[in-house]
Design brief:
This protein is mainly β and 489 residues long. Helices cover 5% and strands 40% of the residues. The chain has 3 domains: 4-195, Sandwich (Immunoglobulin-like); 204-334, Cupredoxins -  blue copper proteins (Immunoglobulin-like); 356-480, Immunoglobulin-like (Sandwich). A hairpin with a 2-residue loop joins β20 and β21 (324-334).
Length: 489
Amino acid sequence: MLNRRRALTLGGVAVGSALMSAYSGISGTSEASAMAGMDSPPPTAGPEPKITPFAVRMPVPPTQRPVAVGDGMDVYHQTIRVVDEEMLPGLRTSVYTYGSGFVGPTIRARSGRPVIVRRTNRLPVRTNTHLHGGHVPADSDGHPMALMEPGESRTYCYPNEQPGATLWYHDHAHVLEAEGVYRGLHGFYLLESEDERYLGLPSGCYDIPIMLTDAHFDANGKMIFITDDGGGRKTLLANGRPQPYFPVAARRYRFRLLNGSNMRIFRLNLGGQVMTQIGSDGGLLPEPVEQTEFVLAPAERIEIVIDFARYRRGTKLVLADGDRPVLRFDVQWEEEDYSRVPDTLRPLPRLSDGPTDRQITFTSNLKEHKFFIDGKTYDANRIDAWVERNSTEIWRITNADAAGFQHSMHLHLVQFRVLDRDGAPPWPGESGLKDTVLVPPNTSVRIKIPFDGYRGVYVYHCHMLDHSAFGGMMAQFQVTDYLNESNER
């Protein structure tokens, strides 16, 4: 068990509860202007640069090494800062980063072994960091009001008391997070379980994380951020490069795909070729699922295996979003391959039965540019749902948005199970644990949620981050040891 006092000593600072009671002044302040104006082009900036598909190689995010190892835990330091990077060929782009590039360094952690991350904010704006999919104490969750001022440092404690999974960390500063994530405040956190080693899945340099995003560039390669600019973000990026290629051997690869974009829903295909899904947000599925197309909403992850041994050397396979190329795999050499995909991957934990305790409804008001959960905008001083620790609840999430918007529901702290969609079975690939689920217009999704382990205040929200940039589409739940008449709803 993680000794928190010892962990904070190793991290370099003692951290108390940073939850702020109010948030007036964030939107429209000088820090918002600093972020928005970082790369704002003049009106004469001209059209976007022409992108030649498959002209650059896709990089793999570097794996960060801990600065200290011992006492049963690993310690990392990260500096959040602005850097210039060549994202588009021949052009420099200013990005926010946890490391040295648009996609931050990958932290590879082990289930059951705690990780301590000490972060220092060298940005001109406030920020914080959420471990998306992490089962963590409330004071390390990255609550949107637990802001880090410029120049401030903070220590985050991640116990890693959960199964292996493709997690990620990203900015979660209230109102500012949409632009922060858009400009590069994100990275992979790959939690590896000892059980996976015996499955024989592709590993090492054949286990590749890929972050999929989109962006709007001006003629000089500067990123333009306009809220709800879905139509303007025409450049598709894989690990921060526009429509790149990636050389592969004629063997199996495991790809961990993350939709790190603010608004885009990817519909991924390999030209009709079969891909094998082995994992989702919360780790491995019970058994593999073969599909020719995957729907990936913002913040969702899928793990797939592609067997390039089925193709001759010289074959080029394009991963596309509909009919738009995202990434090309070039089969360039042959290798022996001892990996496999077993018929059974893992059993899922049994969840206790529970009634449908809550109804969650999404709506919007376009005239006021507001998005609502249960008719309310976010209030940091209000608890919207009280839940009992170690209980299991079933939530029905309904998208009643008359404007026809898609919404991507994310709950902090938990991994849940999708029970059904409008009474029909979940989509293929939703049989595992999830922390984010797409809710199309005029549909309902039921999920079963175990609120195990930690007490405290957490949030649930739409992960179409531009919606939260309007300040509205988020709510809070508090996990407590007991419910009474004053807090039962």
